[in-house]
Design a protein that fits this description.
By secondary structure, the chain is α/β, with parallel strands linked by helices. It has ten helices and 14 strands. The protein has two domains: 219 residues, 3-Layer(aba) Sandwich (Rossmann fold), CATH 3.40.50; 91 residues, no CATH class.
Length: 338
């Protein structure tokens, strides 16, 4: 099987807690026992609430933060390998640039530092927004600074692009145009794109893989078709009348016709909401149903937003990694706990 662009096994990162108490060096776990793999050529959306660890994960993959434990590999080699520098581009959330430089001078610096620099690719990002090359970086708006950061990343012609909230400062037209350029790089060069966002609507039409973090842990990961097909949303109309008011969501899910028998095949309940006619249950199908495509399962696959929100609302629900994003090591678990 092709080596993954990114693979993590038991990855944890601890950083200073900043409580400021004399004589104490407080540490916080910002990433906890994370395991996943991102295939080459994937467009992976990294999502989660504030403080989930998204920025820390991207910075760790970029080699700016050292893992506290576990392993992290890029293209089969440990993170931080000198050969990685030329192959990845990272755009941080704070968009650190040289404010006194002109746009032209900054692009020239990018060319001088990167042997595979593609001037046309960088300038294409700026031309659409009509950003003048003579403008001082410090005079640019937040959206234009974001586009300049993306132009520098795209000009590097990297095999792996790590983008932290790249769409947050852009207007709708700039978002669509910029994503089109980035997706073209994935299609034309086989690049791997990992981008974080708080807004699922910004990602849903573009990504083909998802990585959901919450409280530093991986809660959900996989190719979108696998994730959605592995879950079913059942409502009261689909539940037989005798079980519609069942005390246990698993009973309701089984009575709705989920293709399982026996305790080992019981679907995992992610969330049960409401009561009576308004009640709904989101279940994750058993792996045997995954293998068969779960074509006869009751209910409908959830939308991406319904799926993500259900896992975030229920932090006690067991997390899940689809087969395509599970780490390929002998001792790595096939699934993950909450």
């Amino acid at each position: 099987m092709t080596t993954a662009a990114v693979q993590a096994v038991g990855l944890s990162v601890r950083r200073g807690g900043g409580l400021g108490l004399p004589g104490r060096r407080d540490r916080l776990d910002v990433l906890r026992d994370c395991g996943f793999r991102i295939p080459r050529g994937a467009v992976c959306g990294l999502v989660g609430p504030n403080g989930a660890g998204k920025s820390a994960l991207l910075a760790t993959v970029a080699g700016l933060i050292a893992p506290s434990s576990g392993t992290l590999e890029l293209w089969g080699r440990p993170v931080g390998d000198e050969a990685h520098r030329a192959r990845l581009a990272y755009v941080a959330q704070n968009r650190s640039l040289y404010p006194q430089f002109s746009v032209r001078r900054l692009l020239r610096l990018g060319r001088d530092l990167n042997p595979c620099w593609q001037s046309e690719a960088a300038e294409e990002v700026l031309e659409a927004a009509r950003i003048p090359l003579r403008a001082r970086v410090g005079s640019l708006s937040g959206g234009h600074r974001t586009l300049l950061s993306l132009a520098l990343a795209r000009g590097k012609a990297a095999d792996l692009l790590l983008l932290d909230e790249p769409l947050a400062d852009l207007d709708p037209l700039a978002r669509r145009r910029t994503m089109g350029l980035l997706l073209a790089d994935v299609a034309d060069r086989g690049a791997t794109l990992v981008l974080s966002s708080h807004v699922l609507a910004d990602l849903e039409e573009s990504i083909d893989h998802l990585l959901l973090l919450d409280q530093g842990r991986v809660r959900l990961a996989g190719a979108l078709p696998e994730l959605l097909a592995a879950h079913r949303l059942l409502d009261a109309i689909e539940l037989p009348a005798r079980r519609a008011a069942a005390a246990h969501p698993v009973d309701a899910a089984q009575s709705a016709g989920a293709p399982f028998s026996g305790a080992s095949d019981t679907p995992a309940v992610v969330e049960s909401r409401g009561s009576g006619p308004a009640r709904s249950v989101l279940v994750r199908l058993h792996h045997s149903a995954e293998a068969s495509g779960a074509g006869t399962a009751a209910g409908e696959p959830p939308t991406l937003e319904e799926l993500v929100l259900a896992y975030l609302r229920r932090p006690d629900a067991p997390g899940w990694i689809s087969p395509g994003m599970r780490p390929l090591t002998a001792d790595a678990p096939e699934g993950i706990g909450a």
